[in-house]
Amino acid sequence: MDQATLEKPAAGKKSISTLTEHIIEIVSDSGEGAQRCGQSLGGIAARSGNGVWTEEIIPAEIQPPARSVAGASGNRVRLGAKRITNGGDEADLVVAFNEQVLLGRVRAGELKPGCTILLESMWAEDRDPKVARSYAETRDRLAAEGYRVIEIPMERECRKLVADARRGKNMFVLGMLCDLYSLDMGLAREQIARAFGKKDQAIIDVNVRLLEAGRAWAQANLDFGFRIPAKRAREPQIVVNGNTAIALGVLASGMEICAMYPITPATSASHYLSEVFEKVGGMVHQAEDEIAACAFALGASYAGKCAVTITSGPGYSLKQEGIGLAVMAEVPMVVVNVQRGGPSTGQPTKSEQGDLLSVMFGSHGDAPKVVLAPSSIEDCFYAIITARKIAETFNMVVVVLSDANLATAQQPFARPQFSEDWLAPPVDQSAVPAGARPYDWDAATGLFRRFIPGQPGGMHTLTGLAHDRDSHVAYDAESNEEGIRHRSLKLAALQKTLRCPRVFGEPEGDLLVVGWGSTKGAIEEAVERLIGEGRRVSALHLEFIQPMPSGIGEILRRFDKVMTVEANWGDRLEDPVIDAENRRYTALAMLLRSRYLVDVDCWSDVRGRPIKPGSIVRAARAKLDGAPAPRE
Q1: What is the DSSP track for 182-208?
Q2: In this model, does residue 382 exceed pLDDT 80?
Q3: CATH value of 239-422 in 3.30.450.20, 3.40.190.10, 3.40.50.720, 3.40.50.970
Q4: How does pLDDT run across 610-619, given as a tens digit for each residue?
Q5: What is the pTM assigned to this prediction?
Q6: Domain 6-227 -> CATH class
Q7: Is 12 left (phi over 0), alpha (psi -120 to 50) or beta?
Q8: Which residues of 233-256 are buried (b: 16+ CB within 10 A; e: fewer)?
Q9: In 19-172, where do the E strands start and end?
C-alpha cells in the first residue's frame, strides 16, 4: 500500500486552490439522503453565481440491498466559473457513505485518476468481521491505486446531534462540502429551510446544526479547500430539474389538464403539478393505467382544451392506439415521453434516446405527428409552450421527447417572464357558419377550423374510422386518400415556418457532429475542445425532428464528414459480423441518410448514463483520423 495516498484528517491552515470547475459525487445506500445533499449543494452554488449541472445517480432497483456495489444512490454535481451544460467527465472528489457504493463508481469508470475520496470510516470497526475486512481491503487497494483516500468519522460526529445518524449524514456532508468549496453558509441555511420547508421548525433546526457541525469538522480537520470564482446573475434565476421545468411549462402554456399514470422517470412532473396545478385552475388526473390516461387527455382536448399526458417508453407504447385516434380525429394533444433504457422494462432509472423512431413511425397506419426534443433544462420549459401552440394551431399530436438525463438534472436558467402570448385563446363557442364542415381541409395546408362540442350548428359525429369532410364514415378510396393527404400536408405547412438551427462553430470543415435532445451540452463542449486542438470540427443540434427545418441538407454537404452522436444503438463496424450491408445505424443517422442522401456515420453510447464530452472527443478524433471508434 502507498501510505502517501492514505491520509488522516490533518488540522492546520487550509490551502485553498482556485479552480475553473470541479465535479463532486456524493454516493450512499438508498434512503441516506445523498441525492438531497447533492441537489442542495447545487442549489447553494447556483445561488452563489456558479455554473451548475447536477445528475442523479439512481440504482436500477427501487430498494437495492444495503452496502451493494450496484446500489449506489446519490448525486453528481459539476460546479464551474461559467455556465455548465452537462455533467462532464470523471469526478474530482467523491464522498462515499460506504466502500461498496464507492466500488460501484470506481468500476463504472466515474472517478478520475488520483480522485480525492472522503470515506465514512465507521465500517472499519463494524461488529461483522467480514464487513470490517471488506472496508479495510477496499480502502487500502484504492489508496494503492493512487486515489487520495481520507477517512471521515461521519457516524460518530452525527451521533453527537441525532440518534439516527443515517438521517443526518447528508446534512453533515453538505456542511463539509460548503467549507471545502468556500460556499456561503447563509445561503446554505436558506437552502435547508427551503428543502425542509414543509417540516416542523425543529426538523429544520436540527438539520442546520448538522450542517454547521460538518462545516466545523472540515475547518478543524481538512487542510485543503477550493474556490471556484462565481458571478452573480444580473437577472433572477431558477434552479429546477427537467421534469419540474416541463411541469412549469404546462402551467405557463395555459393547459389545464394533465393525465398520466406513474412511471419512472416521468413521475416527478406529476408530483410537482399535483402540488400547484389546482392553484391556477388546473387538474392532474392519475388514471388507472396508461391507456386510460391517454384517453382522458384525448377526451379533455376534444371538449375544447388541449391536454397533456406524460409518460416514458413503455407507457408510450400503451398509448399508441389512443394517439392514433387523436391523429385520425385531428384532436390536438401534447404527449411527453421522458425516455429511459429499453426495450421492455429495460433500465427504468437510466438514460437513453431509444424512442425516436417509435414516436415518429410506431403506429397503425400513417399517423403524422410533430416530434420535438428539448436539449436543456430551460428548453424543457419552453418546449411545452411551443408544443401546445402547435397542437392547437394545426390540430395535431405533438410529442415532446425528453429523457432521464434531463428529467433529474438541475441547471440554473433565467426566470421566465410570463407572456400572455403563451396561453391558449378562449374556447370559441360562436355559432358555426352555415355550410361549414367539420373537416373542411385547406387544399394547400390541410388546416381547418376546429369544431368545439356545444357550438351551435357544429354538431357532428367524431370517429376514428376513415371519414370524409363531414366526418361521415367513408371507406371509398378517394375519401381515405384525401384524409391521409391533408393530415400529412399539415407537417409540411409547419415545416415552412421553422428556422434552420445554427451551426456551432465554423459553417464548413472536416467534421460535423450532429445530435438531438440532451446530448447538446456534451457535444458542444467536445467540439470546443477539438477546436482548441486546431481541428476543423463543428456541431449541429436538432430540436424539431419531425418535421425537420429547411437547410439541414445544405449544412451537411459543407463538411467532409458527418457523424451523429446519440444514446441509441448503432452497430460498430469493427465487430466481425458487421459490414456496410447489414449495419444498423442510430435513429437520427438513419433519418438524415435517407432524407438528404449524405453519408452520415454514427457513434453511440448506451451505457445508461449521460454521454460524456471526453467520450465524444475521442470518437470524433477517431472519425477524423480514419480510425475505429473507441470502445468506452
Answers
A1: T--HHHHHHHHHHHTTTS-HHHHHHHH
A2: yes
A3: 3.40.50.970
A4: 999 999 999 9
A5: 0.95
A6: alpha beta
A7: left
A8: eeeeebbbbbbbbbbbbbbbbbbb
A9: 21-28, 51-57, 73-80, 91-96, 111-120, 148-152
